[in-house]
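User: Could you go from structure to sequence for me? I need the amino acid at each position, not a summary. Structure tokens:
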């Protein structure tokens, strides 16, 4: 029998019917919360309990949650675990869970003023708070920095007649994608040994070039020479990873010069600790950039700006977090992550059997064994979520990423030490 709350009540001739599946669930929502708080082994990937084909008759909401919980909750990686130190994916604070729940109950669409009036204003306010950190005057949110980078290069092509893109070969692959989609020639330069762009490899004549500088490369966390900003027709800084360091009094200096760029992208689902997908693209002259990327349609009451059409109220959890923590609270979590990376790097550097690729500048620690232990062998000996692997010049290295403020570096070092003995 289906729970009474799950019953689909038919329409009646006397008036509008009710469908409890669209009403506030009370017991059902509490059940979902209870399931989320249960302990799961973190390894369940069993799809067998699910029907192989679309069922003709549903089993009801609560039974569906019970069936899915072991897979969704048990099969996920716990990003806030004490030894989770592998990827650029942080745990999210509970205030974002609440705000995301609000969003789901409303399903706002910011494409149209009538379907997201408050959500549009909230996004504008979040951008107003964030943009000055980077010397930009505004921008908008996107679903990740891949779209943010595409948006920035699109603006560069339209406004500065850019025909070429120059970036380090260590730049994110989204730069390659964007250049391809926009029909721009891509020139990738060989990075310096520390992973940053080599200014001596720059081509002559940058009058038709969008120079892409990276603040926190995906592989080793390197920061390109941001003093190069302003030397090309357009400069875009991909600060997807390291951009939030601008909030930290301790680390903000590492991004000096970013304010001279024409555009900046930041993944707020990284060190702003937001649920995916969430990012911002920011501009030095937002009105100019937005005007170049605006389309109108008869069914819209306001022009559509940028790559995306429909998009949800992802700024709600972002603004909630910024309001709850403030700049100092967010900076404290970022500083804690950076300290975790420095602790791990110091331990690696102290061991004769390990080689540290370079000192971590933005919380990414890359290392390998000097004793003949292959990177894959090391990773296989560790609990899931401890490390990831990265290829540098054809060699495989072990990689740790400090995106988890709940990690315990002392425990991680103990786990690594045991695996290396």
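Assistant: Here is the amino acid at each position, in order:
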């Amino acid at each position: 029998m289906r729970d009474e709350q799950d019953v689909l009540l038919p329409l009646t001739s006397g008036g509008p019917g009710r469908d409890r599946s669209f009403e506030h669930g009370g017991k059902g929502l509490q059940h979902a919360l209870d399931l989320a708080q249960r302990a799961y082994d973190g390894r369940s990937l069993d799809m067998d309990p699910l029907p192989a084909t679309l069922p003709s008759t549903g089993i009801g909401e609560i039974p569906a949650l019970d069936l899915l919980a072991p897979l969704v909750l048990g099969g996920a990686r716990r990003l806030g675990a004490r030894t989770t130190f592998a990827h650029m994916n942080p745990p999210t604070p509970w205030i974002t869970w609440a705000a995301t729940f609000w969003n789901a109950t409303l399903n706002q669409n910011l494409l149209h003023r009538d379907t997201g009036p408050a959500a549009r204003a909230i996004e504008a306010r979040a951008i107003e708070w964030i943009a000055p950190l980077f010397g930009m005057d505004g921008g908008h949110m996107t679903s990740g920095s891949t779209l943010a980078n595409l948006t920035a290069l699109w603006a560069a092509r339209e406004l500065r007649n850019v025909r070429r893109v120059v970036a380090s070969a260590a730049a994110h692959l989204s730069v390659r994608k964007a250049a391809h989609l926009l029909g721009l020639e891509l020139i990738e330069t060989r990075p310096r040994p520390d992973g940053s762009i080599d200014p001596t490899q720059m081509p002559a004549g940058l009058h038709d070039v969008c120079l892409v500088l990276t603040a926190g490369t995906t592989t080793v966390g390197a920061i390109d020479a941001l003093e190069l900003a302003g030397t090309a027709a357009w400069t875009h800084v991909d600060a997807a990873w390291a951009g939030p360091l601008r909030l930290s009094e301790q680390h903000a200096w590492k991004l000096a010069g970013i304010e001279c760029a024409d555009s900046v992208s930041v993944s707020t689902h990284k060190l702003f600790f937001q649920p995916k997908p969430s990012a911002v693209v920011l501009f030095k002259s937002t009105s100019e950039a937005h005007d170049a990327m605006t389309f109108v349609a008869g069914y819209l009451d306001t022009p559509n700006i940028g790559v995306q059409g429909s998009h949800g109220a992802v700024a709600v959890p972002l603004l909630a977090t910024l309001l709850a923590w403030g700049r100092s609270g967010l900076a404290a979590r970022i500083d804690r992550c950076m300290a975790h990376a420095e602790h791990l790097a110091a331990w690696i550097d102290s061991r004769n059997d390990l080689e540290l690729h370079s000192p971590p500048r933005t919380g990414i620690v890359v290392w390998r064994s000097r004793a003949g232990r292959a990177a894959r062998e090391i990773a296989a000996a560790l609990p899931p979520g401890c490390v990831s692997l990265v290829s540098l010049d054809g060699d495989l290295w072990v990689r740790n990423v400090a995106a988890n403020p709940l990690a315990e570096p002392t425990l991680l070092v103990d786990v690594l030490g045991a695996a290396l003995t």
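One structural detail worth keeping in mind: The chain has three domains: 4-72, 94-323, 326-420.
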